[in-house]
Design brief:
globular; four-stranded antiparallel sheet; alpha+beta; about 20% strand; about 160 residues; Aminopeptidase
């Protein structure tokens, strides 16, 4: 396999990311019918990406192979309602890899890029979100997911 490169997304990636998003949700729909997408929904994703690439509270990292986009991760900072003391939290909105490239560690690398390669503010909040996810998995009986994550990340 050719070298895979990771970089911050830009507006030129909108169409390719929207097609990866559609591929991901078509697969997801085959597993869970609640996730059926509209046939033209990739246009909405492209429009969202065009707004997100310049938003300081969002970070989108892409994976490329032979100049083709093969995966992406969409991370952002979001806010809880004002009734909460700690209102900000990190969120991985999407992570998707083209079917041909799955099982090669690309999603793992995208997640690491989201945690370490993004703007410092986003990186810090995503690390907190990741710690919360591990805590929740450990205390909610989701051992299969926790076991899968522990194959790729150090989990104490």
């Amino acid at each position: 396999m050719s070298e895979i490169k990771y970089r911050k997304a830009n507006s030129k990636d909108a169409t390719a990311i929207s097609l990866l998003w559609a591929e991901f949700f078509d697969y997801h729909f085959s597993v869970d019918p609640l996730y059926q997408r509209r046939k033209d929904s990739e246009k909405d994703i492209a429009e969202l990406l065009l707004k997100a690439v310049d938003d300081e509270n969002k970070f989108i990292c892409v994976a490329e192979c032979n100049e083709s986009l093969i995966g992406y991760i969409w991370c952002e900072i979001d806010k809880k309602p004002s009734r909460f003391q700690n209102r900000f939290y990190g969120l991985v909105s999407d992570i998707a890899v083209s079917e041909k490239y799955r099982g090669k560690g690309i999603a793992k690398s995208l997640l690491k890029n989201g945690l370490t390669g993004s703007e410092p503010k986003i990186s810090t909040i995503l690390k907190l979100a990741y710690c919360w996810l591990i805590h929740w998995l450990q205390n909610s009986g989701h051992q299969a997911v926790l076991s899968l994550l522990s194959k790729y990340f150090a989990i104490n």
